[in-house]
């Protein structure tokens, strides 16, 4: 995009993230592939490299990227080249350079998810007392299946625990078709 010159700068590089629509503008003295590649590398270091890079400048820019932005180990183009191999200037892709960081982060996330799931189970156990065969329960009738003056609940009995936390429930008129989890009925005295 060319605008009014501002000193030595005659062009503006307009980089937009497709997902977030975040825009980065960089002033450019020329439209050469070297200068554009340098600015785009700086943007990758700021935002991270995209999976797909779309441009309107033709094939010369893509060829320049293939020459300059490739990983030393996996030869992939455009993950990210903001990191280098230890004690050298050999470019590595973001995935290889931060492999241990990524693995540790995944382990930490997995542990956090497991802890959160356990907290949710404990909360559920406190909120819904355990049920056993022969207990009286109240089963809610969905609004779409209920008439205006019909009761909101049906008195039922737990017939058996078919699977862990899934119960077969019956009334004096027969066994209900579906299996109920502990949060779909309430204890009745």
UniProtKB/TrEMBL annotation:
Recorded hits in Gene3D superfamilies, A to Z, give: Ribonuclease H-like superfamily/Ribonuclease H
Name of the protein in question:
Integrase catalytic domain-containing protein
Species for this entry: Dryococelus australis
Cross-referenced InterPro entries: RNaseH-like_sf, RNaseH_sf
């Amino acid at each position: 995009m060319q605008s009014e010159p501002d000193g030595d700068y005659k062009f503006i590089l307009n980089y937009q993230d497709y997902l977030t629509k975040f825009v980065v503008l960089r002033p450019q003295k020329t439209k050469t592939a070297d200068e554009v590649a340098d600015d785009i590398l700086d943007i990758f270091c700021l935002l991270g490299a995209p999976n797909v890079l779309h441009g309107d400048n033709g094939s010369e820019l893509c060829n320049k990227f293939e020459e300059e932005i490739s990983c030393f180990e996996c030869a992939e183009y455009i993950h990210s080249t903001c990191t280098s191999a230890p004690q050298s200037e050999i470019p590595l892709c973001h995935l290889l350079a931060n492999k241990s960081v990524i693995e540790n982060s995944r382990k930490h996330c997995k542990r956090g998810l497991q802890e959160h799931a356990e907290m949710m189970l404990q909360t559920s156990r406190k909120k819904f007392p355990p049920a056993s065969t022969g207990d009286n329960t109240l089963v809610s009738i969905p609004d779409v299946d209920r008439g205006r003056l019909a009761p909101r609940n049906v008195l039922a009995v737990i017939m058996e625990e078919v699977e862990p936390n899934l119960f077969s429930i019956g009334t004096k008129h027969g066994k209900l078709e579906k299996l109920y989890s502990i949060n779909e009925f309430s204890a009745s005295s």
